Amino acid sequence: MVGAPAVAREPEQESLSARLLRDYDAGAFFFASPRRTMLARGVFATVPDAGGANSLEGLPERVASVLNASREAAHDIPVAVGAVPFDGKVAAQLVVPMTLQRAGPMVFDGAAAARSPLAGQYTLRPVPEPSAFKDGVAAALKLMQEGPLRKVVLSRSLHVDTAAPVDLRQLLHNLARRNPHGYTFAVDLPQHADAAPGAGRRTLIGASPELLVARSGLQVLANPLAGSAARSLDPVEDQARATRLMASPKDLHEHAVVIDAVAEALRPFCKTLDVPAGPSLVSTQTMWHLSSRITGELKDPSITSLTLALAMHPTPAVCGHPTALAHTAIGNIEPFHRGYYTGTVGWCDANGDGQWAVTIRCAEADERTLRLFAGAGIVVGSTPEAELAETEAKFRTMLQAMGLGLEVQP
C-alpha cells in the first residue's frame, strides 16, 4: 500500500483546500489544479444535449446560453463544471452547480498512514487481454506502413470488481496526495441506460498530469504531454530513463506531431503564440513525460476556454494524426468505447475563463466496479512490447491510489 491520504485535523488547523477535499461526497464535482481547488455541489441547471449524432456540436454556445440564463435568474454562481467525452457518441456532462467553494492549491501538512479505498476481496480483468492489445499495436503499425496515418493512440482498460463499495472519498484523497502538481478530479456521471434499478452513482475520477488549455482574461496556456517513460525506484536508473527519453527519436517525433497540431489549433484565436523550440521533462510518481508549455494572447475576448478546448480536442496525444484516420483506427481496433476517457474535464465561467485537463490516469467508478484506462501513442518505431509496458506503467497512478501496492519496478 502506498501514498498518504489527507490527515483529518481540527478545522482551524486545516487548509481550506484540504477541507474541500475532506468534504467531497459522491455526486459532487471536485477539481484540484496546481493553482486552485474547487468543490461544487448540487445542480442549478444542466447544459442540454445537442440531440443529434454529435453531442459536441455547438457545445460552447449551449454552455453560454445556460450560464446567461442562470445569471438572469439571479443565480450567483455563473460557472459550468463537468466532463466532455472523447467524441460525440455520448453526451457532455456539464452543469451549473447550486454551490461552489474555491480555495488555493492543495496543501497537506504532515503525513498519515495510507488507507485503501477498497475493502475485502477484489478481482482484476484486463480488456483487451495483453496479447490482444499487442496485436492491435501491430495492426496500427501496418496501417502506418500502408497509408498516411502518422500516429494513433491505443488504449486498454482494467476492470476492478470489489466485494464491498469503493470508498471514493478515500480514493480521491490518495490521488490528490500522490499527485500534487497534477489535476485531480471527480465528476458525477449519469448511469448507463442498462444499469440495474437502484444502481449507485457513477463517477469519473482520476489525477491527470496534462493541462489541455487554460484561459485567464486574454492569456492562454496549453501544456501538451507526449512521449513517456516509466519511472524507476533506483535513482540512477530513473535519471538514465529520463535522459534516454529526451534523446529518443521515436518520442521526440511523437511529441512534435502533438505540438504542431496544438499550435495549429490555437493560432487562429491568438494574436501572439509562443511555442517552445523543444520539449522539457516533467514527472509524476510513476512516469516521465516530454512537455511543452505553449502560451498565447487572444485576439477576441469572447473566445471562451471551452471554445479553445474543443478546437484542440482531441489532440494527437490522445487520438493520433491525422485525426480522422486515427479516430477510425481506434474504432476498429479498440474493443470498447472510451466514453469520457481521453475527453476533457474542468470548468468555464460566464467570462470565458476556465481550466480543462485531459481526462487520463482515470477510472469510471460505480458502487463496486472501477474501470481503469491507460493508453500509448503508436508511431513508426513503436513495438508492441514497449507500448504494452507503457500502459502498465500508466495504470499505476490509479492502482497505487487504490492501495494495491503495485510499485514502479527498478
From TrEMBL:
Keywords: Isomerase. Its EC number is 5.4.4.2. It catalyses: chorismate = isochorismate. Residues 131-394 form the Chorismate-utilising enzyme C-terminal domain. It comes from the Bacteria. GO terms for biological process: salicylic acid biosynthetic process. InterPro entries: ADC_synthase, Chorismate_C, IsoChor_synthase. GO terms for molecular function: isochorismate synthase activity. Belongs to the isochorismate synthase family. This is isochorismate synthase. It comes from Corallococcus exercitus.
